[in-house]
Amino acid sequence: MELTQQELHRLAAEVDELHHDGMRTFREETAEVHLDAARARRRAVAGTAAVGAMLATPFLVGGIAHATTPKSMTDDMAIAGFAQSVELAAVEVYKMAAPLLSATTKPVAELFMTHHQQHADAFGAVAGTSRATGPNQKLVTALGPTLAGLKDETGALEFAFTLEGQAAYTYAGALTVLQDPAYAKATSSILPIEAQHQVVLGLALGKSLADVFPTGAFESAALGDGTDPKAGLDPAKFS
Fold it and tell me: What is the mean pLDDT of residues 49-55?
């Protein structure tokens, strides 16, 4: 299925609308995360006050609040930080591939790159102490040889197509291990945006519908080392 420039940009605009809806949902869902953290801090302050007002210094309150944060929230923060690092890596990858793109596809890639940056910002806002300090360097390094070997627009789009799928599969895998419902709901608002990125890129490449929906139900999603185009990115390999 070949797309005209008009059709490609129309599909990209539809994904952009989905992205903005997803970001609004993400903010709504993660507001609950912030509320839970605030409640944990208030409980910590109240407990400290019951022991003695002398202990309620800003330093001690901060330490106690962190100590009383539920473990599941800490684990989910780590997953959010990993997702942030993957999104930042995607931004870098798009930047490196951009010179190979034509005037038709480059605006779409730039739009998707903006989505990845905003996804990174969203995940970073709820990652707490697990917030990423930059792109996932292990992932960028792993992708480097493939990026260096890209020669034309088709190769660049194929590369982006695979990466978008791996990002979607990564979040599908995350949904099976996230413990806080708010984190799971927020992640599920970003997953379909990554999947739609892959669909648009696949159609731009002339792929069939079977090719752009290769793995079926997300329950079967697997994680790997980045070499399998039908598997997500395993945090154990890139952390």
Answer: 37
